Amino acid sequence: MSSTSVEDRYDVIIVGAGLAGCAAAQALARADPQHRRSILVVDLHRGVSPRFSGEFIHPRGAEVLDELGFYGRLISAGAVDVDGFVVMENAEHDAPVVLDYAAIPGERSRGISVHHKTLVRVLRRTICEREQVTLREGWRVTDLLRQGAGQSTGQSTGQSSGAITGVVLRDREGVEHRVSCDLVIGADGKASSVRKLAGIPDRRETLGFTAGIEVTDARLSQPLHANVILGGPGPMLCYPITRGAEGLSFRLTFDLPHALPAKGRELSDYLIDAFVPYLPGPLADQVAAALAERRGQLELAPTFNLPAPPATAPGLALVGDAAGCSHPITASGMTMGLLDAKYLAREARRRAGARVGTPWLDDRSLRRYRLEHDRYVPTRQALADSIFEAFRGEGEGARGIRRALFSYWRSGERQRVRSLALLACAERRPRIFLAEYLKTAHHVLHSSLAPRHASHYPVSDRLRQVHGAVGLAGTKVGVVAQVAWSQLRVF
Ligand SMILES: Cc1cc2nc3c(=O)[nH]c(=O)nc-3n(C[C@H](O)[C@H](O)[C@H](O)COP(=O)(O)OP(=O)(O)OC[C@H]3O[C@@H](n4cnc5c(N)ncnc54)[C@H](O)[C@@H]3O)c2cc1C
């Protein structure tokens, strides 16, 4: 078949060939050992999407990349094995808190970090080797086909109308193709057109922006960890992304508010003045020089919070960011997308022997996928939300939680391991998240009210902090109750 055409029908059509779409394609192809199925993957970008995106992947995600046969290829392409997180509350004065993946019992000891464009390029190249997979780049989905109705209007109320039975695609020349299938997988990111066309409501809110630059050979004492550096107007994150002949190159990101404090050239000046002084000394000099000389290109990406919308509808599954995303501070979005691919493929394997002509993944498979998805995604969202609040430290409550979080981490190895297990998506039970969160809130109460700890703060400050912390903890109880409810729900 020519690279500009498609068949009239496939078993599965995946919209979006980013991390989640490629992982889903590879996982499904591997779940079909007899090569009886066909999978079409389309992406609107001819090459890799130019948008600056995630790069640091927890051990759980690295494990899925390994199971899918991507890991070795990524390492050959320059990806770096990474060891965990280092969190610096005050880089100049306090010892950092080190959170090592290797300390989590039963977990793979290292994650992986890789330049996002390299990641997607390697994944796309790999899926094209699968006999069942057809990839079309430069093609976009413009509508969905539905049972009975033929086609959605794009305004449909979605879930109440007929099952989704295919897509309308526009190719590179602007020609439309109607292609049918048993299952559409929406892997088209947080602004998912598939989700909208299916009429699945969402509560997406813009949080702000992340700016990033590349720094060669960043001078860090723990270069194989993601270094979270606090103190400035927002958290900074520095981690390796490429191992080359000349050494390691790193990404440094700055968290910025929605109303950008400056634009263009002035943004670099703002970062030098407002953020760089909080970096550890040697790195600060390197970054200031890179920003001043515009050596590293400054990239900017908006950040969003998208509380998990329903991840399935008849004939449709959402994966990756299309099925929920959070602020990137916990670096967990890609691990979520990889877990989605893994659990969809588990359902596909269960039905590997299903008669051709009957759907590969049926309604029951989709129900089971959604149940699994609803176990890990909301817990991670509640965590990302809390960590973002604490690390940003806006308001007394958040500052109190941040101070307590550090003292909790410094109180013992066990405490650090439990927090990291949550952060790395190795621990996904919402009640454990709530227990950890309440322990931190308890620390705030204790350190704000117990005279031994608090005597050097004015009473009014201590009360404001306690009030804020109680308010934040109350919000989390609500979030966790929602998570627990979603897991009990009978579909
Ligand atoms: C600044 C930043 C830093 C981050 N850092 C991390 C990190 O360190 N670790 C981590 O785990 N996560 C991180 N994330 C999150 C991570 O980038 C995402 O979770 C991940 O990229 C989601 O992958 P995806 O495949 O679901 O979506 P995307 O990567 O958005 O891919 C969607 C694909 O769909 C295509 N598409 C869109 N619309 C259509 C259409 N109509 N038709 C056809 N194709 C379409 C797009 O071209 C794109 O290729 C970060 C995010 C940001 C913004």
From TrEMBL:
GO terms for biological process: sterol biosynthetic process. It comes from the Bacteria. Pfam families: NAD_binding_8, SE. Residues 182-449 form the Squalene epoxidase domain. Keywords: FAD, Flavoprotein, Membrane, Oxidoreductase. Coiled coil: none annotated. It is found in: Membrane. One of its GO terms (cellular component) is membrane. InterPro entries: FAD/NAD-bd_sf, Squalene_epoxidase, Squalene_monox. Its cofactor is FAD. Its EC number is 1.14.14.17. It is an enzyme of class 1 (oxidoreductase). GO terms for molecular function: flavin adenine dinucleotide binding; squalene monooxygenase activity. Its main location: membrane. SUPFAM superfamilies: FAD/NAD(P)-binding domain. Belongs to the squalene monooxygenase family. This is squalene monooxygenase. It comes from Enhygromyxa salina.
